[in-house]
Specification:
Structural class: alpha/beta
Largest sheet: 5 strands, parallel
Distance between the termini: 27 Å
Shape: elongated
Radius of gyration: 20 Å
Strand order of the largest sheet: 2-1-3-4-5
Helix content: 25-40%
Strand content: 25-35%
Length: 240
């Protein structure tokens, strides 16, 4: 299982050194790097990494402030020259706290800890996955709903919330779309992209789109474009 990682550090040399060390771990795929916290925040929200290697002392915005502004917080390994933030780092459930210069053995320990946590999360998600006959409870402001999963045709990411579309309603549920992806019955609900997951029983039309991708139209009229990767996956599942 590959882990997509983002490196954030205001020192280019520190990024380069970490990249060299990470070559020993082919399961860690570096999909981005940034020297500016403001750019890193935008990048992280766009590419949604599984793991961030994060410096703490950076101009403009420190590592903790950056995490507070993320749409979704992935696993975090702090990499810093200072040890006084270690307690705070573990209070926010950071995976590890590495001091510069990074010791290869300590990095290996952190990667091993990541793999154990991923295995545990995968097992937990499988055991907690719902069936289509279940209902979910949603409290949105003063209104409460007890919604059959079979009636939900679309789940839409909205920051730290998911907009749950059923009938003519769309209340907000305080969960991430990734969390819902791990709970919903995978034989029915398909993750289209970073923003949408839809119920395949509500598909009205499937059209070819740009660069071998697909456009899904739901009975509600919503049109959802699948990424190239998800288009391939959907074709395998649906046989189209």
């Amino acid at each position: 299982m590959n882990t997509k990682a983002l490196i954030i550090d205001d020192e280019p040399l520190a990024i380069a050194e970490l990249e060299v060390l990470l070559k020993a771990f082919p399961q860690i795929e570096i999909i981005g790097k940034s020297e500016k916290a403001s750019h890193a925040l935008k990048l992280a929200n766009e590419i949604k990494p599984d793991l961030i290697f994060l410096d703490i002392n950076m101009p403009g915005m420190n590592g903790f402030e950056l995490l507070e502004n993320l749409d979704e917080v992935p696993e975090v390994i702090f990499v810093t020259a200072y040890d006084e933030f270690a307690i705070k780092a573990f209070e926010i459930n950071a995976l590890d706290y590495l001091l510069k210069p990074v010791n290869p053995d300590r990095l290996a320990e952190a990667i091993k800890r990541l793999e154990k946590r991923q295995e545990k999360e995968e097992q937990r998600a499988k055991s907690e996955r719902l069936t289509l006959e279940k209902r979910i409870f949603i409290k949105d402001g003063e209104k409460c709903y007890f919604v059959p999963l079979a009636d939900i045709f679309l789940l839409e990411s909205e920051g730290n919330y998911v907009k749950v579309h059923f009938e003519d309603k769309k209340p907000l549920l305080h969960r991430s779309l990734t969390y819902m992806e791990n709970r919903m019955p995978e034989e029915v609900f398909f993750r289209a992209n970073r923003q949408y997951m839809f119920n395949m029983n509500f598909i009205k039309k499937i059209d070819p789109y740009f660069n071998s991708t697909l456009m899904i139209e739901l009975q509600s009229g919503h049109k959802i474009d699948l990424s190239q990767r998800q288009s391939v996956k959907f074709r395998d599942i649906a046989g189209v």
